Amino acid sequence: MPRHLAFLRAINLGPHHKVPMAELRERLADAGFTDVATHIQTGNIAVTSTMRSQAKVEAAIERLLEEWRGFEVPTIVRSPAELADLRAACEKVPQLVRQGGRRYVAFAKGEVSEDAAQALTAYEESPERCRVVGRDLLLEYDTTFDKVRLTGSRLEKLAGTAVTMRDIKVVRAIDEKWSTT
Q1: How far lies 140's CA from each of 36, 96, 100, 128, in Å?
Q2: What is the pLDDT of residue 181?
Q3: SS3 of 179, please?
Q4: How far apart are CA 110 and CA 136, in angstroms?
Q5: Rounded to a whole number, what is the distance in angstroms from the first to the last CA of the chain?
Q6: 90, 170 in Cβ contact below 8 A?
Q7: Phi-psi category of 149—alpha, beta or left, where left has phi over 0 and alpha has psi -120 to 50?
Q8: Which residues contact 113 (CB under 8 A, 6 or more apart)?
């Protein structure tokens, strides 16, 4: 059975959209997923399923969350091999801003078009940069996160699809933890 890595968008970021990870693991197991594991509280999930289609796994998790928590949670699924390839590709991209800039990966739910890629990479004169890497985005910021313009709804508007961001350190940790299992 295939292993899937799911990334939930916009949960546990404040007083709203709370999703307790321990209870989520139980509910996913009750829904037929096996080998369910989570990593930190930001919605990083590993599951095994008889479903082979990533779109079906995304839909099943989204349906479960909406029925249980009462709000929509966009879910983006990658295989362990895809995550390992994405990490390797991101690490090959030369530094985009000054030494010490913070890197993030934005997992994209849908395809990022050529036009969207051009709009996303047009931030060359700002303290933030973006590159399309495969079907996802690599972001690098040379400013404090509260001053970043290329995040959240702006990033989704330019990309033309839902995205969920993870610090590159979290991506590395998940890759090391789950891409070899």
Answers
A1: 31, 6, 10, 6
A2: 53
A3: coil
A4: 9
A5: 12
A6: no
A7: alpha
A8: 160
Q: Is 155 helix (H, G, I), strand (E, B) or coil?
A: helix
Q: Identify the residue whose tokens are 């590993």.
A: 46
Which position has the token pair 């095994």? 48
125 pLDDT above the threshold of 80: no
- pLDDT tens track for 85-103: 999 999 999 998 877 789 9
Of 88, 86, 63, the residue nearest 73 (C-alpha): 63
- DSSP letter assigned to residue 115: H
Q: What's the predicted TM-score (pTM) here?
A: 0.94
Alpha carbons 97 and 140: distance in angstroms, whole number: 7
Instruction: Indicate the length of the chain as a whole number.
Output: 181
